[in-house]
Design brief:
By secondary structure, the chain is mainly alpha-helical. Helices cover about 65% and strands about 5% of the residues. The longest helix has about 40 residues.
């Protein structure tokens, strides 16, 4: 007997599509490997048109009993990963197992991971701010100075990037003190200056204005730019 085309047979049976998020995060959701396989079987049944596979049908495809399948289904529902949806079609009530709660929880894992990465990055940038001030001051910061810089970020809402740019302006002006940086930040906040472009435009305008009002015979001092600040912005 001649065998049919093997590739054609494979294609006709269809494929089950499931997000990579499931494989990345089901462990984080405390879903066991056996429960994960159960969920994939439910998904496979539904893609074949069976929206409410029974424990017997699922168990027939797994190396486990119908009783264990029932227990796992109950557990997954209690944990909020599965739900039973009801729908009336032509006055007939139908039910289906919904995997939507699981997909929602997986997306929550993604957003949580992104938020954590953002928080870690923010903490790293905040730590660098203290190091930059210590580098420019040539000494360790005092507890009061640390508290002042922390207040800029925690209470005044200044980002590490904007504080870095304010420090750069203080360096350029040769007025390296927390009080002067604080004045710069206060001025920028009052004028709603938040981006590097806005800072650059405002600083250029400010310096040009100062040059115009200088008395005759006074030449402006050239101030060296600091690469460690330039590279960071």
């Amino acid at each position: 007997m001649q065998q049919p085309n093997r590739l054609q047979t494979w294609i006709e049976q269809g494929n089950v599509h499931i997000s990579q998020l499931f494989f990345q995060f089901y462990k984080e959701l405390k879903i066991t490997d056996e429960e994960a396989m159960l969920l994939m079987h439910i998904h496979a049944f539904q893609q074949q048109g069976n929206q409410f596979p029974t424990p017997d049908e699922i168990g027939a495809r797994m190396m486990t009993s119908q009783l264990n399948v029932t227990t796992m289904l109950q557990k997954l529902m209690q944990q909020g990963y599965l739900a039973i949806d009801q729908e009336t079609i032509e006055e007939v009530l139908t039910e289906r197992i919904s995997l939507q709660p699981l997909w929602d929880r997986l997306l929550d894992c993604v957003y949580k991971e992104q938020d954590q990465a953002k928080e870690n990055s923010q903490k790293e940038m905040e730590g660098e701010i203290f190091q930059l001030f210590e580098q420019e001051f040539g000494r360790f910061l005092s507890p009061m100075e640390i508290e002042t810089i922390s207040m800029w970020m925690d209470q005044d809402g200044h980002t590490p990037a904007i504080i870095r740019m304010a420090l750069k302006e203080a360096v350029i002006s040769q007025k390296i003190s927390l009080r002067y940086v604080d004045r710069i930040l206060f001025e920028w906040k009052k004028k709603n200056i938040k981006t590097k472009t806005e800072v650059s435009k405002h600083a250029t305008s400010f310096r040009e204005k100062n040059i115009r009002i200088q008395p005759a015979g006074n030449s402006a001092k050239k101030v060296q730019f600091y690469n460690w600040l330039e590279d960071r912005n």
